[in-house]
Fosfomycin resistance glutathione transferase (Pseudomonas zanjanensis), 138 residues
Amino acid sequence: MLSGLNHLTLAVTDLDRSVAFYGELLQLCLEAKWNSGAYLSLPGLWLCLSLDPLRGPEPAADYTHYAFSISAGHLPLLVARLNAAQVSSWRDNRSEGDSFYFLDPDGHKLEVHVGDLASRLKACRQAPYAGMVFFTEL
């Protein structure tokens, strides 16, 4: 049986640029780096950056993205840092909890989100999405 998310691997086209983005701008901890990759971490998250020259420059048109948790007090500081670095945003927040949606240097869609699954489910119980059915109790 699955016990959790093990790690995320993102294909990148410029390893040094991506290490700087995730390590310096987003402040993940750089654990290891080699010629074609790097490992970074946050509590509970292992992120692998893998050099892949086949990675295209354009972000996918779908909603697939990777969301990181952030406290309400830290969100404005990070958004200001991302805006100062001229990081592109890709969507406006339309759901429960404050969020900021942005692109990494290789077009991976990212989000920083205030809240968790419990707060999302609470909001959805008050205003369910079309056709929404709940399978767990409060």
About this structure: The helical segments are 15-25, 75-84, 117-126. The chain is about 20% helix and 30% strand.
